[in-house]
Amino acid sequence: RPDRLVNLLTAAVLGVVQGLTEFLPVSSTAHLLLAERFLGFDDPGGVFTVMIQLGAVLAVVWLYREKVWSVVSGLPHDPAARCFALLVLAGVVPALVAGALFSDYVKRVLYYSPIVIGTAFVAGGLVMLAVERLRPAATVHEIDRMPIGRAFGIGCCQVLALVPGVSRSGATIVGGMAMGLERTTAAEFSFFLSMPTMSAAFAHDLLEVRHVISADRALEISIGFVMSFVAALLVVRPFLRFVGRSGFAPFAWYRIVAGVALLAAAGAGWL
To answer: Which of 5, 156, 236, 256 is the most buried (most CB within 10 A)?
Structure first.
């Protein structure tokens, strides 16, 4: 049916949007929600939005598969592997706790508010510019050498990403830079935090909706998932090269301009 084909094509486009923006500090959730509204895609409860994020996360697992495997296989006997796993765990726990407590409220109240998203865009961009200018000199150049307290602090920053528009990667990367991590080290730690964090979000949503996902809905999610995987696979390495060379100011200005435009559109009654 023509309308069915349109829905599947829309799911594919949204998957690309998700994959391209998941690891950029611009909020993939906000871009996905706005794209869904613009394209007229119905996503009750934000299930599609959360579930296709796992596609992007699996792309990072694939790109870092050697490190992931060395940590997992080394847990029984390698102190370095256990130390790395402990850093990731310290960074993940705050988000898991906050997600369990507040995710339902966030989805019900904040997800579809252009005012919330626009404000978070602008505020995040301003914080990003401030940290780029005022951050302390980088003292941590490898994840393995990061103190566990800083990992926990970055995890607390990740909690802010429950608010659409904040950006999970943006919050963790900027938080890491503020705590003395070098740019690309902060970005890579953000990637590793995304693996258990987004996997847990996926499992939570799947458990909640497993009885109501129709075959048509499952197909849309599958298409979005695959396109998200492919798009993220293509963007992660260039992103790291770009921030190592140019920093985060371009993303900050994009956030500010997009946020102001969004707030203006909402104020004019267009959204």
So the answer is: 236
